[in-house]
Amino acid sequence: MRKVMTGHKAVAEAMRQIEPNVVAVYPITPQSEIAEYYAEYVHNGLVSTELVPVESEHSAMSACVGASAAGARVMTATASQGLALMVEILYIAASMRLPIVMALANRALSGPINIHCDHSDAYLARDAGAIQIFAESAQEAYDYTLIAQRLAEHNQVRLPAIVNLDGFTLTHSVQVVEPLDDEPAKKFVGSYKPIYPLLDVDNPSTWGPFAMPDYYFELKRAQVAGIEAVPETFLEVQKEYEKATGRNYRGFFEAYQLEDAERVLVVMGSTAGTAKVAVDELRAAGEKVGLLKVWLYRPFPYAEVAEALSHVKQVAVLDRAISFGAQGALYSDIATAFAHRDRRPALFNYIYGLGGRDTTTEHLTQTLSELKSARPGEELRYIGLRE
Amino acid sequence: MPVKEKKQAPPPEIAQGRHPMEKYLRTDRIPHIWCAGCGLGTTVSSFLYAMDNLGLDPDSVAVISGIGCTGRVAGYVRMDSYHTTHGRPIPFATGLKLAKPDMKAVVFSGDGDLFAIGGNHFIHAARRNLDINVICVNNLNYGMTGGQAGPTTPLGGRCTTSPYGNFEHPFNLVYLAASAGAPYVARWTSLDVRRLQRAIEEMLVRKGFAFLEIIAPCPTNYGRRNKLGEGLDELRYYAEHAVIEHGADPADTEILPGKDFLVGKFVDEEEPTYWEMYQDKVAELEGGRR
Predict the structure, then answer these.
(1) What's the ipTM?
(2) DSSP conformation class of A232
(3) B65 pLDDT tier (thresholds 50, 70, 90)
(4) pTM for the full model?
(5) Looking at residue B2, what is its pLDDT?
(6) CB contact under 8 A, B160 and A28
(7) What share of residues in chain A are helix, strand, coil (percent, to 5)?
(8) How many CA atoms are closer than 13 Å to the CA of B62, on its beta-carbon side?
(9) Which residues of A touch B (CB under 8 A)?
């Protein structure tokens, strides 16, 4: 049934249906309401979850790691500085192959302090070893929370997963969302079967031991196997989701008017919605433009993205964070995707929307238009910046 | 016979809609973001009056805040000020104080910032007797993020994350500070504007770690959810329930909903400060030469 709700509520609803054993969470704007909704579910007896209102995000992720190693299904949510505080433990969660699923209400990192959206927090956790998925809408945030749970807990994967949703734009705005009924949702997610749980006292195991130069390297290599299992599993889980729900999420990204496009925007998150309007406007004027919206950001689907963009003349890659001293993180991925291909579009790197700066349809139609005559180069270009 | 109140003309700035202490305020940042009935305005005023009464040069005082409603204090005062990340005003003040021992470092932050995410730093600064002032405005919940239960939420307190009442033991901040070794520990409410001013003056001129807890209303979040009424009703509650008992045993200063609670100066001792002990150690290693 279609309902009207915020992104917060959409994520909280997915969490309610997943019904983790433990949720450890600390308030931070613009995430707090996810925790508040979930607290309500816990205190009203709608879920059997143990809610741990910890004293910081560092403790939140630490509690998640403890509970997950013990064999529990575990979830959390955070944003920006909260994720920054979690990152130390997020690396450990990934290395211990703990399928902790979390919503990240994307918000700019300090400083200066800012509470509005950009993707600097997601980029900060880029190399942590967690799966990262970006949602365009509250609906996608809901669907991908369920999908992420299956993906993270898949036996070949067993990794933490982050579902990114743009702070305020998606978390606070009220949108039409069609959640699944509880039964099919619960059936799709299934129950969690931990391996080597600490609480299996008959088969004692050690978690988090020291690794010297003699084994550390091999253990990190073994972790690669987990993240390498993600793409195939991602497609599998998408298919199962389609079977269960009729919702056809197909592939690592959404291709919008891409097939015959000559100029293309690549974006992640809610700006894809704005980009679709921009593409529609220019298409109506007879221009061959399109959009590639990334869903699966980590692991990055290099080959598939390169394949999808190989016929394009110019590509504007939009990064919602600066990677100081380097090209934008998403741009770098796209450029890497073409490293071994002869046929490649001209690539342009645009930085946009930092600290919640609005990006409008006009900004994006202008970006697509200026691509026609733009000279390729490595300089960063900025959208909507006063200079 | 009723005492005849002497009518005193208000400072002329008030009639002009200005703050009498605006020389210490970044007027371009005003109006502030705090809610009607919040205790922070009077709390900051008391601090500014204390500065004024002592004739302190604003260049000699730094105000350091964390994150949260009280975290905004640093942004409003026209002094060297720093708005740190969540929970870290004390480490910042530690660095500042050691780099510039002559400067007064005033940490102005909330209960969530200082005692949850930054709790560790508080006990260590108190243990070291670092020469800083810590003013904690305690509104019993995380106000800025919408009223979640925190480390000072009383048992039974209703918050967005404890809709049927908090069941976790809260900290008694006075007892905690005293136990951690703070040589100056006081508590007042945001109703006690003159006592607050005097306490802050004492803290500003004394050596060593000084801790002041200010109980303040949060009518928008904690007050509303716990049916405590408007800000003024909470001040009435303080007037009826805050009992002054200087020198009371910090263990007896617990705050329980609906019960009288103690305010006053509970600890006031002279202990060698971190800086003095550091200098003594240097002198000892240098064979008594300073």
Answers:
(1) 0.91
(2) H
(3) very high
(4) 0.95
(5) 58
(6) no
(7) 40, 20, 40
(8) 24
(9) 26-29, 32-33, 35-36, 39-40, 43-44, 51, 53, 55-57, 81, 85, 110, 113
Select from A28, A33, A86, A124 the residue whose CB has the most chain B CBs within 10 Å, as the one to mutate to test that interface: A28
Can you say how many angstroms the Cα of residue A205 is from the centroid of all Cα atoms in its chain?
32
Nearest-Cα distance to chain B for A385, in Å, is 24
Cβ contact A33:B146 at 8 Å:
yes
Residue pairs between chains A and B whose CB atoms are closer than 8 Å: 55
Say whether A253-383 and A3-243 share the same fold.
Answer: yes
Model confidence over A79-121: pLDDT tens digits?
A: 999 999 999 999 999 999 999 999 999 999 999 999 999 999 9
DSSP states along B16-61: TT--TTGGGB-GGG-S-SPPTT-SHHHHHHHHHHHHHHTT--GGGE
Altogether, the residues listed in chain A come to a count of: 387
Whether the Cβ atoms of residue A134 and residue A268 lie closer than 8 Å to each other: yes
Q: How many helices (H) and strands (E) does chain B have?
A: 11, 8
The CA distance from A285 to A278, in Å, is 11
Q: Cα–Cα distances in Å, from B38 out to A29, A358, A372, B41, B213? A: 20, 32, 56, 7, 15
* For residue A135, pLDDT beyond 90: yes
Please name the CATH architecture into which domain B22-289 falls.
Answer: 3-Layer(aba) Sandwich (3.40)
Which helix (H) or strand (E) segment holds residue B224: the answer is helix B224-225
Nearest to A165 by CA among A144, A186, A184: A144
Average pLDDT of the segment spanning B93-108: 96
Q: Where in chain B are the domains? A: 22-289
CATH of domain A3-243: 3.40.50.970
Tell me the pLDDT of chain B averaged across its residues.
95
Choosing among 3.40.50.920, 3.10.290.10, 2.30.29.30, 3.30.70.1350, the CATH entry for A253-383 is: 3.40.50.920
For B85, the closest of A26, A55, A110 (CB atoms) is A110
Number of neighbours of residue B52 by Cβ within 10 angstroms:
15
E strands, chain A, in order: 3-6, 22-25, 50-53, 74-78, 101-106, 131-134, 161-166, 174-177, 253-256, 263-267, 289-294, 296-298, 314-319, 346-352, 380-383
Domains of chain A, residue spans: 3-243, 253-383
For residue A267, give the DSSP letter.
E
Residue B5's pLDDT band (cuts 50, 70, 90) = low
Q: Which amino acid is at B16?
A: Q
Q: Is A161 helix (H, G, I), strand (E, B) or coil?
A: strand
CA distance A23 to chain B (A): 12
What chain A residue is nearest to B115 in terms of C-alpha separation? A55
| Cα distance from N-terminal residue to C-terminal residue, chain B | 63
- Alpha carbon dihedral A213, A219, A222, A227, in 10-degree steps, equals -110
pLDDT for A213-236, tens place per residue?
999 999 999 999 999 999 999 999
Q: Which residues contact A269 (CB under 8 A, 6 or more apart)?
A: A106, A117, A119, A134, A135, A136, A164, A165, A166, A169, A170, A320
Tokens representing A150 are 């299956």
Q: How many CA atoms lie within 13 A of A143 on its CB side?
A: 24
